[in-house]
Design a protein that fits this description.
Blueprint (H helix, E strand, L loop, with lengths): L3 H7 L8 H32 L16 E14 L6 E2 L8 E8 L2 E5 L6 E4 L3 E7 L1 E2 L2 E2 L5 E8 L2 E9 L4 H22 L1
Antiparallel strand pairs: 1-2, 1-3, 1-10, 3-4, 4-5, 6-9, 7-8, 9-10
Keywords: Membrane, Transmembrane, Transmembrane helix
Organism: Streptomyces alfalfae
InterPro entries: PH_bac
Length: 189
């Protein structure tokens, strides 16, 4: 029969944590995460360089006329028209932000706190529709207001989401009516 003293002598104490190895793994992981973020940032800057042929964004006219509709919500970004994953990052168009939209006879005034504002002239508007996604944001069918417009020689889709989703259909109807009216007036002359 073994005594308690013999049993206690046979047992080894628990392994002590190797803090140097653990610290090395943590530092290595943090450096890897920093490298990934740096590469993502460089990719974003490279995309902006590739899109440098896009002209400066138009500013709102001093007197755009009375507001037809107003909307507050979120701006989710712009893409090449018809290619919902080809994000445009030049001139700040890739930055998500809050947005205040104002539709007038002159066009759409896009005011973005913390990001660059821009104006979409009525003559540059091509289409408005409700869709489910744009680069980096996918919602239920009809969750995004997508405005297609011409900037320079490129067609862009810009995605907006209203704080009150019911008003997005009204925007689609108003913009498409404005486009049809300006097209009809342009061909009548």
């Amino acid at each position: 029969m073994t005594t308690f003293v013999e049993l206690a002598a046979e047992k080894e104490s628990a392994d002590v944590t190797d803090w140097a190895a653990r610290l090395g793994w943590v530092v290595g992981l943090l450096l890897f995460i920093a490298l990934v973020y740096w590469l993502m940032r460089e990719g974003w800057k490279w995309r902006g360089t590739l899109q440098s042929d896009l002209p400066e964004l138009p500013a709102a006219p001093s007197d755009p006329g009375p507001a037809t509709l107003e909307l507050s919500g979120r701006y989710h970004g712009s893409t090449t028209a018809g290619q919902w994953l080809d994000r445009i990052v030049a001139h700040g168009l890739g930055a998500r932000s809050r947005v205040e939209l104002t539709l007038s006879d002159a066009g759409i005034d896009v005011v973005r706190p913390g990001a660059s504002d821009f104006f979409i002239p009525a003559g540059q508007l091509r289409e408005a529709r409700l869709d489910k996604g744009i680069a980096g944001k996918v919602l239920a069918e009809g969750g995004l207001l997508i405005v297609t417009w011409e900037h320079g020689e490129k067609l862009l889709d810009s995605g907006f989401r209203s704080d009150h989703a019911a008003e997005q259909a009204e925007w689609v109807e108003a913009i498409n009516t404005m486009i049809k009216t300006s097209t009809t007036e342009g061909t009548a002359r």
